[in-house]
Design a protein that fits this description.
Blueprint (H helix, E strand, L loop, with lengths): L4 E4 L2 E5 L3 H6 L5 H5 L4 H10 L4 H18 L1 H7 L3 H14 L10 H7 L1
Antiparallel strand pairs: 1-2
Length: 113
């Protein structure tokens, strides 16, 4: 029934109607597509593969920002928690000694904030 959806607390809160827009939220570009990089491969390599604090915190940050922009349900149910979650994720990155300035996603993240 649900092809591309995001759940929170076991409830579907967002149906992804544009996979292009979803992947763009993580920094996937049309140039990457032209180069033959699949969006799932990009996300795996950038955020998941090494299971680092950066990967987890950044991946979650992008999902939260995407939902804030695209999901009325998310904004209604979790809008008051949004800023706190992003602050917690920033703290996790800092505690892990990660310097976002050195991350290749930094210019994209600043543009999307």
């Amino acid at each position: 029934m649900y092809f591309a959806c995001i759940q929170a607390k076991g409830e579907f809160i967002h149906e992804i109607t544009s996979l292009d827009e979803f992947y763009k939220a993580f920094g996937y570009t049309q140039d990457m597509n032209k180069d033959g990089v699949l969006p799932e491969e990009f996300i795996w390599d950038e955020y998941i593969k090494d299971s680092t604090a950066k990967s987890t915190a950044c991946y979650q940050m992008h999902i939260i920002k995407y939902l804030k922009k695209h999901s009325d349900t998310f904004r209604k149910q979790f809008g008051d928690l949004y800023e706190g979650w992003l602050a917690d994720l920033a703290r996790l990155r800092a505690e892990a000694g990660l310097n976002c300035v050195d991350c290749r996603m930094d210019p994209f993240c600043k543009k999307e904030s």
